[in-house]
Specification:
about 260 residues, alpha/beta, 6 helices, about 25% helix, globular
């Protein structure tokens, strides 16, 4: 399966949803305040258009939260001498980007959206203290980004900073080391999400195998946030601080950045 975004720009538009479900039922309900971004993706599959569409949605859901509607824009097939080679489908997929939410009682509330960037310090006490302070100020949604530096050649194509020209060292670690790095990061992510949800906040998250600056800018490019919380190890041992990540990130976004240094929990 291949799923690639087209060059057509994403669009945003208010979307009114209708539903016969009663308020508080947990199903879709009217929300005239919702705003969605729409992007187009193209996917192919050797067996059917349905499988091509399903593969595209599965791939998108790995990195985009709150997917809502996927509309088939175009279908075609690629051919070879033997006949149909692959079924291709173009989808217009929407996901929510606004900060207004309809509560079960029908009232509209505005939430703050915070991007939390951490890896080895995820779920640390200093970080959770900052989270609780955010939640105390009002309804808050967190999206946790865990950039993962995968060892070995598997990471060579993504470990680099296009803004500074920095390219990380490529070694020859085994596939087992790569799997371990990914699984360890996944465990930290899940622990962080559980702690966030225990505060009453809505929390989503993702792993990205990339330089932390590039990974953060990729997420900022597809969703809107009010603040960034960046959690690192102390300066004496932090690779992110050796790369001057807080200041480099501040040069690329006007969002306020809260930087927290803490030891690995």
């Amino acid at each position: 399966m291949t799923a690639t975004a087209t060059t057509a720009p994403a669009t945003t538009a208010p979307a009114t949803k209708t539903s016969s479900a009663p308020v508080g039922s947990g199903q879709d309900r009217p929300d005239p305040h919702s705003v969605y971004r729409v992007l187009q993706v193209v996917s192919s599959h050797p067996h059917s258009w349905e499988e091509a569409a399903r593969s595209a949605i599965t791939e998108l859901s790995r990195t985009i939260t709150d997917l809502r509607v996927a509309r088939v824009v175009e279908q075609d097939v690629s051919l070879s001498a033997a006949g149909v080679e692959r079924y291709r489908v173009k989808l217009a997929v929407s996901y929510r980007i606004d900060r207004r939410r309809v509560r079960d009682d029908g009232a509209v509330t505005t939430v703050r959206r915070v991007l939390l960037v951490a890896n080895r310090t995820a779920a640390g006490p200093e970080l959770m203290a900052a989270v609780r302070a955010q939640v105390a100020e009002g309804p808050t949604e967190f999206h946790v980004l865990v950039p993962v530096l995968l060892p070995g050649l598997a990471n060579a194509s993504v470990w680099g900073d296009p803004f500074s020209g920095y390219v990380g060292t490529v070694d020859t670690e085994s596939e087992t080391d790569t799997d371990f790095a990914w699984s360890a990061a996944e465990e930290r992510l899940q622990e962080q999400l559980q702690l966030l949800r225990q505060t009453g906040a809505v929390a989503t998250g993702e792993l990205r195998p990339a330089d932390p600056l590039k990974a953060t800018l990729d997420v900022l490019g597809r969703a809107s946030f009010d603040e960034i919380i960046l959690s690192t190890l102390p300066a004496s041992v932090s690779r992110w601080l050796h790369l001057d990540l807080p200041r480099r990130l501040a040069r690329h976004t006007a969002l306020p950045i809260t930087h927290i240094e803490q030891v690995e929990p």
